[in-house]
């Protein structure tokens, strides 16, 4: 269902292409027709390998997908001193060349700009085809269809007294260019797209997937990345169709499609969102989302959250896995040896996501620090918290300080004098490894004991 900016439903209409007489015209490449002398695209045209556009028809619209071209038309820059824009001249010329090619006019009426900027279409069409539809609300609009032996061409021309918008779509079936790979992160890029920034992959983390009713917090191996193409070539619809094709190939189940409620999006803070921002950004409610659950061999599963915006796209993939501990407990005597040798030692303390709450599994390490302090009553320690460089710097400093304070509080709560301990947080300011790798970021996320 599509609604306009007034909230009114917009009928989605079918069309019988057989009702259009066939044409024998020979066409070249998009947009197939030259512009009248003295006219040109005001900005560089948007040319997409595969997109869709809702052409005006009757009291609603008709979807057509295929290769597309759209532009705002105006007087050519080199003619602006001696030529004025003429709606009549431009329209007469384009209608004449379309008629000569054998096109049939199937609509004439108002643009109804509000259709293209309603809640469902404002990103994909209002943004993606802005040069073709961003005119006066009731701009004079005509739609023409050219039926050829091997393809159909749709043309929408909207004109005002000062400019015009032109959309041309060469109707063709969709052909997927991305494949399900069978190896993590499983998704591949559509032809002509790339990952933009380096994707962020972690051996173990958690991402919350919106199901329409609540969040499914999935732990395991994670991947977050962008899906990028040239500014005037990227297509929301092309990314969507390729993702749908990969999900069909993998047997994925669609869990959610649409916009996440704002109040749900705000449940998680900038630390977690920053970790996955290349894939799903910070404002989860501001774009169309697709969420899938995908079965994997041996009873495993992966989850996918795709972000679709006219200006960019991205996705997060999590392969659900149980936590496998790779860190070892440092007993009190080992802590003392390292403090004596280096003056500092990193301890294995884990916290809840974006929180200073110490996880129960870290209690044995706290017990060993307690034993160290009990065995050495004159020992005084600074507890220092550190993070990797994911997320906002000030937030990381605040979080690391709070986590260090939680460790101090746990020790004071067991009888250690508060005067023997202090807490400090440095965020990502004091890395011990390269934040460009998962292994480096894991080393940088640490709590250290420093002899005072």
TrEMBL record:
PROSITE patterns, per database record: OMPA_2
GO cellular component, one term: cell outer membrane
Primary location group: membrane
Domain OmpA-like: 338-452
Superkingdom to which the source organism belongs: Bacteria
The keyword Membrane is assigned to this record: yes
Region feature Disordered, mapped onto this chain: 429-452
Entries under PANTHER family matching the protein: LIPOPROTEIN YIAD-RELATED, STATOR ELEMENT OF FLAGELLAR MOTOR COMPLEX
Protein's UniProt name: OmpA family protein
Lineage: Bacteria, Pseudomonadati, Pseudomonadota, Gammaproteobacteria, Lysobacterales
């Amino acid at each position: 269902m599509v609604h306009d900016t007034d909230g009114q439903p917009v009928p989605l209409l079918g069309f019988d292409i057989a009702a259009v007489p066939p044409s024998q015209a020979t066409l070249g490449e998009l947009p197939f027709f030259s512009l009248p002398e003295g006219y040109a695209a005001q900005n560089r045209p948007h040319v997409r390998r595969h997109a869709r556009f809702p052409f005006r028809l009757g009291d609603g619209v008709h979807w057509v997908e295929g290769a597309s071209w759209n532009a705002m038309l105006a007087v050519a820059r080199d003619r602006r001193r001696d030529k004025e824009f003429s709606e009549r001249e431009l329209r007469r010329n384009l209608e004449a060349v379309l008629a000569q090619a054998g096109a049939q006019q199937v609509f004439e009426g108002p643009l109804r700009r509000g259709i293209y900027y309603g809640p469902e279409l404002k990103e994909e069409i209002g943004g993606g085809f802005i040069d073709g539809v961003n005119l006066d609300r009731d701009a004079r609009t005509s739609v023409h269809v050219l039926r050829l032996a091997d393809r159909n061409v749709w043309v929408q021309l909207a004109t005002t007294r000062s400019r015009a918008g032109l959309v041309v779509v060469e109707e063709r079936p969709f052909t997927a260019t991305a494949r399900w790979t069978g190896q993590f992160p499983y998704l591949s890029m559509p032809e002509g797209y790339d990952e933009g920034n380096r994707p962020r992959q972690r051996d173990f983390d958690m991402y919350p997937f919106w199901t329409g009713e609540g969040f499914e917090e999935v732990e395991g191996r994670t991947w977050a990345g962008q899906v990028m193409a040239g500014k005037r070539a990227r297509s929301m619809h092309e990314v969507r169709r390729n993702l749908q094709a990969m999900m069909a190939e993998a047997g994925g189940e669609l869990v959610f499609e649409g916009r996440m409620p704002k109040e749900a999006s705000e449940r998680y803070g900038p630390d977690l969102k920053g970790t996955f921002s290349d894939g799903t950004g910070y404002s989860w409610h501001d774009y169309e989302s697709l969420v899938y659950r995908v079965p994997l061999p041996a009873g495993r599963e992966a989850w996918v959250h795709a972000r679709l915006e006219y200006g960019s796209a991205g996705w997060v993939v999590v392969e659900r896995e149980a936590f496998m501990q790779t860190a070892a407990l440092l007993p009190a005597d080992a802590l003392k040896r390292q403090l004596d040798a280096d003056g500092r030692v990193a301890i294995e303390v884990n916290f809840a996501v974006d929180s200073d709450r110490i996880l129960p599994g870290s209690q044995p390490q706290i017990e060993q620090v307690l034993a160290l302090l009990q065995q050495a009553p004159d020992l005084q320690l600074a507890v220092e918290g550190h993070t990797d460089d994911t997320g906002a710097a000030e937030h990381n400093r605040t979080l690391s300080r709070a986590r260090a304070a939680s460790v101090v509080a746990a020790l004071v709560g067991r009888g250690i004098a508060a005067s023997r301990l202090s807490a400090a947080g440095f965020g990502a300011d004091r890395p011990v490894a390269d934040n460009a790798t998962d292994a480096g970021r894991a080393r940088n996320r640490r709590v250290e004991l420093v002899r005072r």
